[in-house]
Amino acid sequence: MNPGIQKVEALDAGHFVRVEWEDGSESRYPCVWLRDNCQCPHCFLRSARARRLVFEDLDVNIVVKEVALADRKKISITWPDEHASEYEAEWLKKRCFSEEARAEMREDLFLPERQYWGSDLQLPKLPFEEVMYNDESAYKWLCTLKKVGIVLLTGAAARQGELVKLGHRIGFLRLTFYGPTWQVQDKADANNVAYTTGKLCFHTDYPVLQHPPGVQLLHCIKQTAAGGESEVVDGFNVSNKLKKQNPQAYQILSSTAVDYTDVGVDYCDFAVQNKQRIIDVDSRGQAVRINYNNATRDTVFDIPAEKVRPFYAALKEFNDLLNSTEHKFTYKLRPGDIVTFDNWRVLHGRQSYPSGSEVTRHLEGAYADWDVVMSRLRLLRKRVLNRD
After folding, report:
1. Nearest to 145 by CA among 341, 369, 373, 348
2. Where do the domains of the chain lie?
3. Closest Cα partner for 141 from 341, 291, 362?
4. Are 72 and 5 within 8 A, CB to CB?
5. 279 and 311 in contact (C-beta within 8 Å)?
6. Are 218 and 183 in contact (CB under 8 A)?
7. What does the buried/exposed string (b/e) look like for 219-236 if buried means 16 or more CB atoms within 10 Å of the residue's CB?
8. E strands, 123-174, where?
9. Going by C-beta distance under 8 Å and a sequence separation of 6 or more, which residues neighbour residue 175?
């Protein structure tokens, strides 16, 4: 993108600068924003890409004194205190305040596109080794993880430690009270229901934390011959269905603070307590995170007694949708498989399997935060697509 500027002028008594582009389009920039984002060395530390201008020194009612077109690739502004600022055309064009330009910027920075699914999921698969050592494959993995919410990596060694390597490929793993990684297998005196042979209902991990892990990684090291199938469901797809089917139930689940608790000893001793809404929504009422784990939902419920039964009715309807054959997808991990999924979106479960004197099923698990994953995705995108 190499936009050229046709004309520049001040508007609204100097409170706005209007840029007319060579392609015939135009952009309007508030002068307070332009002054706040001056790119000169006094106002901006280029090595850190960070603002040096302190907010106390910003006049929110500032107007331009002079604005000029230095050449067709740059505008210059003189402010009332004689401070001078220059802005490159490409930099300005990318930050245009039009709805179209802002939508394009959101797409570029956050990749918000989602592909919803149910029992018809075509589970995306990629070779583990390719993801580890090929940037295009790693980029495809993280793009698909963001869009679909789940990707299966195949061909890893059937031993502990592969998730640590994958964590380094992303950046780093998330440390929790269960350790940097954790072993899902049948354990005596289990401190987590996952460490048993019983059925695990659909859930997201760790809603008891104020900031639950964004991405979960599960590596199959050993698999039982009978049972132990994995199940997943697209929580955003189901939330949309609930919103259409029963708006009142959706409103209850997206506004009621549910108490979660987790107490025990693992990586260290812990006593965690938190409140979460089952369906977290954004300003438009769209689901952005599911916080549902029936095992760690507390016996304490900090709401008025008359609101309890309506809440249970709403949760029952949501839970029934999660478990409907239309929405859930069942598969069985094989040794060397690593399933990676969006823990804010995809609820997962497990069918029961026979208990015995020996460990017949062993998964290693780990978490990563979306901040870390999205950072790596942006860096890979820039490298693979040769973007500036």
Report:
1. 341
2. 5-110, 125-385
3. 341
4. yes
5. no
6. no
7. bbbebbeebbbbbbbbbb
8. 125-127, 150-154
9. 267
User: From CA 14, how far away is CA 37, in angstroms rounded?
Assistant: 17
DSSP state of 179: B
Domain 125-385 annotated CATH 3.90.930.12: no
CATH level 3 topology of 5-110 = NE0471 N-terminal domain-like (3.30.2020)
Distance CA 212, CA 195 (A): 20
Confirm if 337 and 222 have CB atoms less than 8 A apart: no
Nearest to 291 by CA among 302, 274, 279, 301: 279
Of 294, 136, 121, 150, the closest CA to residue 215 belongs to 150
pLDDT, one tens digit for every residue, the chain (388 residues):
688 999 999 999 999 999 999 999 999 999 999 999 999 999 999 999 999 999 999 999 999 999 999 888 999 999 999 999 999 999 999 999 999 999 999 999 999 999 999 999 999 999 999 999 999 999 999 999 999 999 999 999 999 999 999 999 999 999 999 999 999 999 989 999 999 999 999 999 999 999 999 999 999 999 999 999 999 999 999 999 999 999 999 999 999 999 999 999 999 999 999 999 999 999 999 999 999 999 999 999 999 999 999 999 999 999 999 999 999 999 999 999 999 999 999 999 999 999 988 999 999 999 999 999 999 999 999 999 986 5
Handedness of CA 234, 240, 243, 245 (dihedral sign): negative
Q: What token pair was written down for 77?
A: 């502004």
Is pTM, for the whole model, over 0.90? yes
Query: Which has the closest alpha carbon to 361: 195, 163, 123, 231?
Result: 195
**3-class SS at 184?**
strand
Q: Which of 116, 111, 124 is nearest to 150 (CA)?
A: 124
